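Quarterly update, task 2.4: zinc ion-bound model.
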Amino acid sequence: MKVCLNYHNLGYNPQFGINKVHPIIFKNHIDICNDFNSNKNIDLTITFDDAYEGIFTFARKILNKSSIKRKIVFPIVDYIGKNNTWDSAFYLNKYKHLSRDQIKILVSEGWEIGSHTCTHKYLGRLNNDEIRSELVISKQKLEEIINNKVTSFAPPYGIIDKRVLEISKSVGYKEIFIQKNKNVVYSDSILLVERNNIYSIDRNKNIINKINNSRLEKKKENFISSLNVITR
Ligand SMILES: [Zn+2]
């Protein structure tokens, strides 16, 4: 069984919203994942959207010591090494994104890098040329940083439609990481990976339920992501 858990930021101080997970809570989550890895036949991937510096400060050590094989970070390419001024909640939650050097270090430690576009715009509202440029330029810039191919893509807000999917395929992406239970459009020649979003309110039992695909967790995630749609 394949399971993918998706995080955003990590850090000690509480913030406005639920996207920042406390490092001790994160460590507990990864302990649960390690237990699943050693006791059940499960293939766990951990991903991080937006590429905040908190990944380097807190998640790096914990994950490098864990049994999680696939760890993927999806930077917003125009904001590498900069503050999160793209975020509408920036004045409440000011954070730095990973720098080029930090991304290179993660890659040298076995982490993967994928695109989360250049600017974090909702792609469904852009025209085809704008979508293509978000996808192509972010891919090229990341490939230049890591000196390797970038074939994974996570659309902002976890949503993809048929148009964005076709363009992603045509510019060379092989795997698309979306949010579970969002309008999924399937395609033969591209792999869609459905992810569970993890929030600061999630405790060990929520992680177990998410890995076990519980209906209640699905409902909760759908509700939270419907709030995201309002703010985007
Ligand atoms: Zn994002």
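Highlight for this quarter: The chain has seven helices and nine strands.
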